[in-house]
Structure formats: C-alpha cells, structure tokens
C-alpha cells in the first residue's frame, strides 16, 4: 500500500477503518481461496477477545485441522486439559467425539468424568473411541468427521502423520465443516495441513487470596497460524466459571515479549 | 463289541487301536449341527437319552424351499455322503417317531405321514422309544418286545411299575404329548436364506448377496413396524464349515445400505480369521433381535435437522463398533460412589438421565487405572507432602491443597481398603498431581504409603 500523501488530519481514523475493511475482505477472500466452504464459516472461540481477535476467523475455524502439541512430555496432561476446555466451548448440544490412540496419553491415565466436568465439559456429551494403533485411529477420526454428526472431533494420535494422512483429514474436515483438533503428544514434526499449531506447557496455577488454586495456567504458544501471526500467551482457565482469561501478570504485552520461545520475538 | 482289547488282538492280528476322543466327537457333531442350520434355523442336538449321536431338524415350513420333504432328505443324505459321513435319516411328525425310524426301521420308507405313527412304531422293538437299558430289559423279560405290545394297554400298571419315562416317551412318540427340543440357538424372528449356484468367496460378492437378503427382509420388518437391532450372517462353506458374523446396532434399522456397510466393516476386521476356502455356497441373514421402530415423521421439517444428525451419529457409532469392537466406543456414566475408582462406569449409550455430582473438591481429568506407588517426603507424618518421586523423576512440591479424606466403602466387602487422604499438589513448573496417603498415620501399625492417582491439566 502506498504511504499516505496528505498530512495527518482528522480523516485518518476514517481511513484506518477503510484499511481494516480491506484487510478483512482480503482475509475472507484468502480463506475462500484456501477452500473453507462458503456458508460453513464459523469458529470455535476462546471467549477471550485477545485471542479471538488475533486469530483470523475469530477463533479456531471450523472445517480445518488444529494441532495441539506439548512443550515437553510432562506437559501432556496440560495439553489434554487445554483440548478438553476447547472442546467444551463447542456451541450447540450435538455430541463431541474423542479418539484416543496415544500410548503416551494412556500412560497418564484414562479420562475421568468428574475431572472432565471440572473443565466445563459435560461427560454425557462426549463419546470416547479407543483404538489400538494409529492406523485405526486415523480411520476412526476420518470416519467421525465425514459423518457430519459430532459437533467437533478431537483425536489424540501419536506417531508420524505423513502428508497423505494429514491431507485426508484436512479434506474430510473441510467437506464436513467440523473443527478437528489433533493432540500430538510429544511429536516434534508438525501436521502439514494444520491451520493452527499450539504448543502447550504447564505453568504454576493462579492462587486466590486464601492461597488456594483458583485456576490452571498454561503457556499457550501459537507457533503457526495460517493467515495470521504466531504469538504466545499465558492462558488462565477458571475452574468455577470455566472461562479462559489472560494471566494477570503477563497480560501486559511488554512482559510477554520477554518469553522464552524464539517465535515471540519474531511476532512482536 | 464289548470285547476286551487283549481278546480282540488275539483274534485279529492287524487290529488297529485308537483311543476314542469323546470331546472331539461332540465338537464335530456340534459343528455338523451348525452346518445343518442351512436347512432350518431350528436344530437341536440329541440329548443324553437319545444317544447323543445326531440331531433333530425342525423342518416345518422349510421343506418346500428345496421342493419337498423327499428332496430335502435326499439333498441332506447326498451332502452328508460327500463329507464322508454315513447317515440314518427319517422325517416324521414327532421327534420320537423320527428317531425310532432312523435308528430301527428296516423298511426303505423314511418319511412317515401324519397319523401313521402307530403302525410304523408297532413292529419296532421297545428300545426304539429311547428307554434306559434297564427299563428296556425289564420290558423284554415281561414279554413286551415290540412297541405295538405297549400301545393300547392299561396305563396304570405301567405307571406303577416303571419310571414315568416310559409312558412319557410313548406319548411323545405317538404325538399325544409335546416334546420340547433344546435348540442350538433360538430361532430368529426374521430369517432369509439363499443358496447360490456357484460358491462365492470375494468380499464384494458376499456383501452384495447379504444386501439382497436384507432387502428381502425389509418388507417383513416394515409390515411389523420393527427394525433389526442385532443381525447374524451365516456363511456356509462348501466343505461344511459355517462362519458367523454378528452385528449389533445402537438403534433398530431397516436400511439394507446401513446393514451392508456394517457387515463390510465387520468383514474388514475379521479378514484374517475368515477363511473362504473353496467358497461359500449358502448365505443366511437372520434378525436375531428385532425392536419396534418409531415411524419416522415425514411431514414436519422443523425437527428433522436434529433428528437427521442424531441418526447419522448412531450410524457412526455402529460403524466404529463393527470395525474397532463394541467396547472400543464408550461413554462415561456416573456411579453413585465417592470412591474414585468406582465413581464412573462405561456405558454404550450416552448417559443423560443421571447427573454428575457437582465437584466440590478437585478431580483430575486423567485418572490412572490403578494408583501408582510413589516416594513422598512429608515433614509432618500427617501433613502435606514436600517432595515427590514418581516414575523416576523428583518433583519439589511448591503448593499442596488438602487433605480430602475419602474412606472406603466398608459395607461393600469384608476386606476394606484403608482410608485415603488426597492432596492436589503442584511442582515448581506447574505440573499438577493428585496424590493420596493410604492409611492414617498413628492409627494402626502400618506405615502410611503414598500413591499418585491422577494428573491435573
């Protein structure tokens, strides 16, 4: 865009608004070019304006693949909790489906209903599918997405996910307009077709004034975002209200910039 | 028969001796009986009293499929011959008469017409009534050699002198009393069988044939307003083996496409175990559980989108279950118990009626199937933990919440596990564990042990 020639005056905010509109329009077109089907636009919002505004579609877009991985193997429960908290935010009352195939996750235990409820996810809404190997898990995930019955599908798949497999999942999700969340325990290789990639790490929880834990905290590092920019946040999840918020200590961006991940410096 | 082995060896030098394997015989007979379900679903093995060396087929309403009773009998005899099995067959109105004719009759006539039981049985020896050897011997000694000698005699003296078995068998053979048969499997509500001209062995051919069978069943299901909840596809191999595929559904269905799809997934799963051999010559599809189906509302479009989604969801669950196994797809259901291991159960359908208890105290989303022992340092015996060593890693605990004391359910069993004190602890890097101390310090002589039971997000 050419720099403004006229001196700054009162019309500037007006022009900014026009510029925003153009950018929005471009984003919408980009999404169409990339194949998000028309009429199925929608997103799984965090209910947190800082994140939702940063993400191009106002949340995790429907009809795309979102990858959640862990900062270290010990952070797997944290990543699982993040996944469940996101699933719980799926609008409507249609069922949710969770495919479990990861041996690493199985080593951390099995889903516990009361614990799911504590993360805001009604256990009666969730269907668990346990498979023996990754091949069956891929099949089950694709089958579930293609059925267009669950409101969202999540899948904990370990092991290598080659380009062909990830493309199949991507096309299946795009056809069905269903958000597909992939939990990749301890995998360093990313899923090629993922629209967003999150790396979750545990952080010491927030304490209330009595010194009791008031909410979980996670380092949420958005490492990759199609049509958007990577960024990191310190997310907090309140047990009582089941809502995301930014941890008070690092809500200030100047503090967040000092974070450990190299991508932070890039994003500014 | 009844000779000693040594005597028999002395008489015939080249005698070969084999130890009889009764279990294998019974097994083979059961397999043969399963094969015979290709003629009729009602097949019953002979009981102990009948010699346990054959089976009954209830061919009522099934004979015409092969052109009549005579054709059925010759078809059966020919197939058994092709397996290398000599057979004695008979068809009669009552199992008793059929048994007697097949075992003792000397006439070539093997099909006994209705009402002809009396004259057929009369010339046969009393042993043809399936009596115990003692009863048969006593009767012969008293001069009752033939069944005809018993028919029409005053019953009271027989009833007084013999076990009641005698008169019951007589009545049953003559059709005066009903004889219950213990069928291999309860006859299905709906069944459709098709014999093929050429044996088939490919998956597609099997599924096409199964789809046609289901299409044949649909009008009957529709007429009764029922749908199939469980189906069984029997594949009869050329060499007499029978392969069975069972399919269970979440909701009753009448759709051949859905059934075919589920069978395809089942076949894919069983591909290793299923042996086609020289091919399958007969297929039979049975609806083993039928349930009333709610007539679908077609006029109002308002609720249809939700209903359609629900239908797709149950179809999805069915498909996943066929391929992955029924127990791989589950829902969590609450159980009214405060003991963590017992507080939830797996259910096939989503549990909506029972509410989950409101969590007053923290519960982890990931619970270990079995609590895992951990080394814990606690400065005060009944105080919170300070250091945790679990799975080879040492965690310094920065924050601990608890204890939440959970006592075992002493009313459930004699040996009651010790009371537990649960703590939610967090280490310096924000990893959160659900720990408990087993036993109360200072009470009893057991030193308290620590366990990790769950992981928090």
Overview of this protein structure:
Helix content of chain A is 34%, strand content 25%. With 268 residues, chain A is of the alpha/beta class. Chain A has one domain (43-267): P-loop containing nucleotide triphosphate hydrolases (Rossmann fold). In chain A, the strands form two sheets. Chain A has a nine-stranded mixed beta sheet with strand order 6-4-7-8-3-9-10-11-12, with helices on both faces. Chain B folds into four domains: 24-174, no CATH class; 190-324, DNA polymerase, Y-family, little finger domain (Dna Ligase, domain 1), CATH 3.30.1490; 330-360, no CATH class; 366-455, no CATH class. Chain B is 30% helix and 25% strand. Chain B has helices spanning 5-11, 22-36, 69-82, 95-104, 117-121, 133-141, 147-150, 155-161, 165-174, 203-224, 256-269, 304-324, and strands spanning 43-45, 55-57, 190-200, 226-237, 242-253, 280-292, 329-334, 344-347, 366-377, 387-390, 393-406, 420-427, 432-438, 449-455. In chain B, helix 10 (203-224) runs antiparallel to helix 11 and helix 11 (256-269) packs parallel to helix 12. Chain B starts with a helix and ends with a strand. The chains are: A alpha/beta (268), B alpha+beta (457). At the A-B interface, helix 3, strand 5, helix 5, strand 6 and helix 6 of A face helix 12, strand 7, strand 9 and strand 11 of B.
């Amino acid at each position: 865009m050419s720099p403004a020639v006229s001196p700054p005056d009162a019309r500037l905010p007006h022009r900014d608004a026009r510029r925003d509109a153009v950018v929005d329009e471009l984003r919408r077109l980009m999404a169409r070019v990339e194949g998000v089907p028309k009429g199925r636009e929608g997103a799984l919002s965090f209910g947190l304006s800082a994140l939702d505004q940063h993400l191009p579609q106002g949340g995790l877009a429907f009809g795309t693949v979102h990858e959640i991985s862990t900062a270290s193997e010990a952070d797997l429960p944290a990543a699982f909790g993040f996944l469940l908290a996101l699933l719980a935010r799926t609008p409507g009352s249609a069922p949710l489906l969770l495919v479990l195939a990861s041996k690493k996750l199985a080593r951390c235990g099995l889903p516990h209903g009361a614990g799911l409820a504590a993360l805001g996810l009604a256990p009666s809404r969730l269907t668990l599918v346990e498979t023996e190997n990754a091949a069956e898990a891929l099949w089950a995930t694709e089958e579930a997405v293609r059925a267009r019955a669950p409101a969202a599908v999540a899948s904990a798949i370990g092991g290598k996910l080659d380009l062909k497999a990830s493309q199949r999942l991507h096309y299946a999700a795009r056809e069905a307009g269903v958000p597909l969340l992939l939990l990749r325990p301890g995998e360093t290789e990313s899923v090629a077709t993922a629209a967003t990639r999150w790396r979750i790490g545990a952080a010491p929880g927030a304490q209330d004034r009595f010194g009791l834990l008031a909410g979980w905290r996670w380092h949420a590092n958005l490492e990759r975002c199609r049509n958007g920019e990577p960024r990191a946040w310190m997310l907090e999840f309140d047990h009582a209200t089941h809502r995301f918020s930014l941890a008070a200590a690092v809500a200030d961006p100047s503090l967040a910039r000092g974070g450990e991940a190299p991508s932070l410096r890039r994003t500014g | 028969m009844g000779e000693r082995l040594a005597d028999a060896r002395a008489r015939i030098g080249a005698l070969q001796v084999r130890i009889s394997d009764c279990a294998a015989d019974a097994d083979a007979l059961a397999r043969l009986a399963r094969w015979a379900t290709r003629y009729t679903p009602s097949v019953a093995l002979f009981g102990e009293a009948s010699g346990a060396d054959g089976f009954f087929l209830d061919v009522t309403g099934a004979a015409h499929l092969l052109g009549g009773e005579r054709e059925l009998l010759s078809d059966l005899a020919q197939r058994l011959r092709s397996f290398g099995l000599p057979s004695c067959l008979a068809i009669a109105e009552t199992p008793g008469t059929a048994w007697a004719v097949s075992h003792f009759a000397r006439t070539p006539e093997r099909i006994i017409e209705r009402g002809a039981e009396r004259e057929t049985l009369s010339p046969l020896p009393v042993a043809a009534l399936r009596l115990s050897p003692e009863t048969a011997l006593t009767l012969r000694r008293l001069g009752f050699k033939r069944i005809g000698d018993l028919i029409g005699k005053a019953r009271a003296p027989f009833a007084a002198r013999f076990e009641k078995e005698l008169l019951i068998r007589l009545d049953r053979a003559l059709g005066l009393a009903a004889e219950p048969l213990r069928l291999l499997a309860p006859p299905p509500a709906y069944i459709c069988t098709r014999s093929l001209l050429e044996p088939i062995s490919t998956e597609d051919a099997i599924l096409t044939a199964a789809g046609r069978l289901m299409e044949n069943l649909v009008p009957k299901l529709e007429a009764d307003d029922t749908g199939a909840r469980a189906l069984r596809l029997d594949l009869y191999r050329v060499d007499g083996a029978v392969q069975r595929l069972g399919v269970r559904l979440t909701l009753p269905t009448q759709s051949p496409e859905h059934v075919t799809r589920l069978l395809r997934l089942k076949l894919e799963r069983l591909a290793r175990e299923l042996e086609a051999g020289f091919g399958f010559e007969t297929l039979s599809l049975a609806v083993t559980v039928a349930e009333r189906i709610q007539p679908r509302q077609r006029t109002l479009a308002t609720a249809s989108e939700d209903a359609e989604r629900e239908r797709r969801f149950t179809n999805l669950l069915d498909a996943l279950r066929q391929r992955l196994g029924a127990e791989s797809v589950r829902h969590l259901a609450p159980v009214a118990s405060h003991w963590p291991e017992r507080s939830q159960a797996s259910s096939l359908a989503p549990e909506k009626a029972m509410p989950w208890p409101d969590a007053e105290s923290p519960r982890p989303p990931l619970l270990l199937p079995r609590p895992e022992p951990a080394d814990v340092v606690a400065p005060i015996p009944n105080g919170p933990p300070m250091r945790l060593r679990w799975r080879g890693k040492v965690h310094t605990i920065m924050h601990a919440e608890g204890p939440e004391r959970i006592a075992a359910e002493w009313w459930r069993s004699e040996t009651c596990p010790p009371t537990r004190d649960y703590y939610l602890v967090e280490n310096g890097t924000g990893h959160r564990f659900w720990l408990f101390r087993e036993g109360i310090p200072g009470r009893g002589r057991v030193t308290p042990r620590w366990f990790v039971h769950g992981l928090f997000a």
